Amino acid sequence: MADKTSDDSSKLKTLLSILRKFIGVADIASVRFSLPAQLLEPTPNLEYWNYLDRPETFISIGDSDDPLGRMLAVLRFWFTKDLCNWEIEDAAPPILGVTTKAPQAKAESTSNKAVRLSYLTEQTSHHPPVSAFYIDCPAKGVSARGFDQLSAKFTGTSVRVTAGAHNLGIFVTVESRGNEEYQLTHPTAQLGGLLRGSPSVTITDSCYITCQQTRIKVILHYLEEGWLSKSQNKVLGVIYRYDHENDRRTRIKDVPEQDVLAKLEGCWQRQVYFTLAGSSEPHLLVDLDPLFPAPKIVPPESEQLSNESRRFWHGVTEAILEKRFAEATKLKQELEERQRERAAGRKTQNEDWKPRFFTGALTPLGKPELTEDGKEALRGLHEGNYRLQESISIGA
After folding, report:
1. In sequence order, what are the beta bridge partners of 234?
2. What is the pTM assigned to this prediction?
3. Staple 201 to which of 40, 86, 195, 297, CB 3.0 to 4.6 Å?
């Protein structure tokens, strides 16, 4: 235990020494720099977030016949999608064209019948670092897509992390309900406690969930923690009927009482409750205490493409796990240099980078479209057939 405490303290000092160089920089995520391997989490960047820590909440979104019931199901998915532990390490850095085919997950639906959903993601842009993702469950008629991009700023005492310009949230489509679409935007996260030697992550500000078809909107407000007070991780919310064309409300207190369908309150790391309009009795929406991230089914390395994340980062990951950090750093730098060389070659040939599984690196609507290869990859995942032809063009 003493060795781990000393190791964590050393990592924190190293991280702080790096962060101090970026005071005043508007967006750390847009700056080209390489972290030493000892600060890296042995998880590839594309697998760090997949929004499927509890896949059963995702596949259940369209089950209710009641529009409010479906919005409550979306909220259960929202609060359970990221159950992973928050660490100060960064994930393995983004490499253009690297992809994760899956992870796959089997989940129990409300009918207790196991169904399969699949997850596909690809690094579509290196600067800015952006990846596209697609989640699909044909058996339940539910899918989701979006772009992942973070923007980060070091204030001198904490790191403030917001969604990047191309990250417009998670777009969930419920085909079984007339293609209802839900847009879920991301709140701001704050990594604090760095100077005290006890780093912790809090969520602040507000985020929104909207569905134009049902005309229902949610405002979630994550309460900001006091600098000296114990972290409460409180969240408040309101579900209400809205007019998509004219609604500009961003604060809970601005919602007229006659439009309210339900109110929310609780701790986003423990229990969240909802109270229906006209009632004073709270109902449990979700209890996170007994939950843990569900295991994923990942194609074996022998059936992965050479640029799939686990195979691509295999050497670096093994070296980190075995604490051979000098070797891990060297291997990581070799991969990054190879990416720079390929990028220079494309520039010389006047070639633009094109993702394989998605139609473009970025879209103004924040909703990536699958290419034919992307559709084929998802079909293979649903059928348990993981093999694909090697990519003609790769980023590194």
Report:
1. 267
2. 0.87
3. 86
